[in-house]
Design brief:
The protein is an alpha/beta fold. The chain is built from 9 helices and 8 strands. Strands 3-2-1-4-5-6-7-8 form an 8-stranded mixed beta sheet, with helices on both faces. Strand 7 and strand 8 form a beta hairpin.
Length: about 300
């Protein structure tokens, strides 16, 4: 039976590899790519959106709803929020006034989920790409990314939330904290989404060679492209092809996982101890609902 799967972050990196897997392995899946610019992944078409702008995200989500309602798209059974950004500071604000990392990595995908929620047809699966940087220890971060520093969501959503926000360390802390927030939201989705609509978080592991470092300095970009890919020969990193395949498996439901679970590459695992906090998750839910509510 034909179905629609909406995906962000499919233009490059593991998302691109995953999208190619999905198109090849699941011909009944109508892959609808959300991107700022047209992509050549044209089997299902694309919808234009700038994830740094909540108004742009809202427009894209409403367009998808309309196309589903008009029968231009088959039933919606999947959403993959794979897009992510990491800045060299924690001072970059988006057009809505929120810190840019938090906007793209947390708010944009939450808004998509909420605006499409009543258009999903069960069984459906939502996948948010997260990161093992949310553990905050050397085993998972290799000393390259500071661990998350949780604050009130009112603080996290604004610029300057972390120590030395003008530095790359501040930007990386914003990144790891945003990924912890995404894991929290997946737990909350599992509590709140209707039966048959599952949500899982997906960790690709450390994947050198992606576009994540595109906002970093020249030395860091060179290391990510030319030096760190050698780490994929060790257990500490995941190759681009392998990570993309695992993401496709998660998106297509080929990796068994119950709603709310954490998929670490190709298997279900426990996320960090810090990530299991119902009170924090409820507070985050209430905050992101307010942040993404349109002020008409």
């Amino acid at each position: 039976m034909k179905s629609t799967l909406v995906m962000t972050g499919a233009s490059r990196g593991i998302g691109r590899v995953a999208a190619e897997h999905i198109l090849r392995r699941s011909p009944d899946t109508h892959l609808l790519v959300v991107a700022r610019e047209f992509t050549d992944l044209d089997a299902g078409g694309s919808v234009s959106a700038d994830l740094a702008s909540l108004e742009s995200v809202r427009t894209a989500a409403l367009e998808i709803r309309d196309r589903l309602d008009r029968g231009e798209l088959p039933p919606l059974r999947g959403f993959v929020g794979n897009a992510g950004v990491q800045y060299t500071n924690a001072l970059t604000a988006g057009p809505d006034g929120f810190e840019a990392t938090f906007t793209v990595n947390v708010l944009a995908h939450h808004l998509f989920v909420r605006l499409l929620e009543d258009r999903f047809v069960a069984p459906a699966r939502i996948v948010l790409t997260v990161s093992d940087t949310h553990f905050g220890d050397f085993r998972h971060n290799l000393g390259m990314v500071p661990g998350p520093v949780w604050r009130s969501p009112e603080v996290l959503a604004r610029t300057g939330a972390f120590a030395h926000p003008e530095t790359a360390a501040g930007g990386r802390t914003a990144y790891s904290t945003s990924k912890l927030a995404a894991v929290h939201l997946v737990h909350e989705y599992a509590r709140r989404l209707p039966p048959g609509i599952d949500a899982v978080s997906f960790n690709p592991g450390f994947v050198p060679g992606t576009g994540l470092a595109r906002n970093a300095g020249a030395v860091a970009r060179f290391a990510m492209r030319r030096i760190l890919p050698a780490a994929t020969l060790t257990p500490f990193a995941t190759g681009l092809g392998e990570a993309g395949r695992h993401l496709a498996d998660a998106a297509l439901g080929e990796t068994p996982a119950s709603s709310g679970e954490y998929v670490d590459r190709g298997r279900v695992a426990r996320s960090s101890p810090e990530s299991y906090d119902p009170d924090r998750e409820a507070e985050l839910w209430e905050a992101v609902e307010r942040f993404t509510r349109r002020a008409d």
